[in-house]
Write a structure and sequence with these properties.
Length: about 300
């Protein structure tokens, strides 16, 4: 194995330290405690785990955590009323509605009800438009985490050939937009892409966000390329046991790549760290403390 391992777990710990330092400064210098509200509708087990983890890490960095757990059959009106009250609450600087929502709720309507300046997931249409036009926005957490790791490893990304596999609104598209904003030449590949191996082989940077276990083999990777594996897939192994794997075949890709993120311990930990960072950014902007919002750099 030749690739350098990009340690997302360690990087996320550094991000959390910077967030905690900024939170402490906001408290002492301005008497402000950033607050993150997380709304969970229903009892999806994976969502419950994520929400618990988000709440715990929010408190660990010194912020206020507000959890709102609603029954699976909660009506759209009740959910929208809750969002309105969180939008108006000065103690809340970030609002996250855990997805997926139960089928009777319109996710687009619900997300677009969040005040854009409190939309720490960066999914509100206003933030999507701001990001798409290179303006200051709230940036979706998973792509932001990938970008921070890429910048840390490469320094400048300018002129790099980047291929993003996957075109979802939450990962693939914002990832491509961020890479474009950093002056990469970006290709977005997807399920209808012709000759995907050939497309991937041209990439200096590969971001895989597909949701198919170990889909990208090592012989698709250009020697020395950087591979960011967003995928989280649970697969069966022997004796009824399971394990987590990414969207890239780790061993064969690591043998060719210059750098690679593992699964677990790569992109995953960065996502919640970036959520915390986005909440602090939102808090700074809401309180017109914008000169201090670059606390991650
Ligand atoms: P999604 O299902 O919304 O999108 C998958 C994309 O992959 C689609 O755009 C589709 O066109 C593309 N695709 C499907 N089959 C393909 C194929 N054979 N070849 C090329 N492209 C193909 O998924 P998503 O929400 O973007 O998530 C992708 C993966 O990332 C999942 O494994 C998910 O669990 C993981 N994820 C991880 C984090 C994290 O924090 N690490 C966060 C979000 C998502």
């Amino acid at each position: 194995m030749s690739a350098q391992i990009i340690d997302g777990k360690a990087f996320a710990a550094t991000v959390r330290q910077k967030v905690a330092a900024k939170v402490s400064e906001l408290k002492t210098a301005h008497g402000i405690t950033p607050g993150l509200a997380v709304v969970l509708v229903g009892t999806d087990p994976a969502s419950q785990v994520y929400v618990r983890s988000k709440g715990k890490q929010t408190v660990q960095v010194g912020m206020n955590s507000f959890e709102h757990k609603l029954d699976a059959d909660t009506s759209e009106d009740v959910l929208l009323d809750l969002i309105d009250s969180l939008n108006a609450d000065p103690a809340v600087h970030g609002i996250l509605v855990q997805l997926p929502l139960p089928g009777h709720l319109d996710e687009t309507l619900v997300i677009n009800r969040i005040a854009p300046e409190k939309d720490v997931d960066g999914f509100h249409i206003a933030n999507v438009g701001l990001l798409g036009t290179g303006q200051k926005s709230m940036v979706p957490c998973t792509p932001l985490g990938c970008l921070l790791m890429l910048r840390d490893y490469h320094g400048s990304l300018s002129g790099k050939n980047a291929v993003v596999i996957g075109r979802s609104n939450i990962v693939g598209k914002p990832m491509a937009q961020l890479l474009l904003n950093d002056s990469c030449t970006v290709t977005i590949a997807h399920s209808r892409t012709a000759d995907l191996p050939d497309v991937v082989r041209r990439a200096d940077i590969v971001v895989a966000a597909v949701g198919r276990p170990e889909m990208v083999p090592g012989d698709w990777i250009k020697p020395g390329a950087t591979v960011i594996d967003v995928g989280i897939n649970r697969i069966d192994i022997e004796d009824g046991k399971t394990k987590l794997v990414g969207d890239v075949a780790y061993e064969s890709c690591a043998a060719v790549a210059g750098a690679i993120t593992p699964v677990p311990g790569g992109v995953g930990p960065m996502t919640i760290a970036c959520l915390l960072a986005n909440t602090v950014t939102a808090c700074c902007r809401i309180n017109n403390l914008t000169d201090g919002e670059d606390f991650l750099s």
